[in-house]
Amino acid sequence: MKHEIQIGELTVTLDEAAETLRALRFGQLDAVVVAGPQGGDEVFTFRDPSHPYRLLVEAMNEGAALTTTDGLVTYHNSCFGALAGAGGELLRGRTLAELVAAGDQPRVAELLARAHSRSARAEVELATGTPVQLSVSSLSIGDLALFCVIATDLRGHLQQEELHRKARTEIEARDRRFSIAAHELRNPLATLEFQILLLRRALQSTPPALERALALTANIEKQKQQLTDLVGKLLDVGSIGGGRLSLSFEQVDLADVVRVSVERADELLHHSGSSVELELEPVYGRWDRVRLEQVVANLISNAAKYGPGAPIRVAVARRGSLALLSVEDGGKGIPLEARERIFRPYERIDRTSTPGLGLGLYITAEIVKAHGGEIRVEGEPSRGARFVVELPVEADR
Amino acid sequence: MSRKQSKPAAEYELRLYVAGQNARSIAALANLKKVCDTHLNGRYSVEVIDLLEKPQLAKGDQILAVPTLVRKLPAPLKKIIGDLSNTERVLIGLDLKALT
Question: Smallest Cβ distance to A43: which of B26, B52, B59?
Answer without folding.
Answer: B52
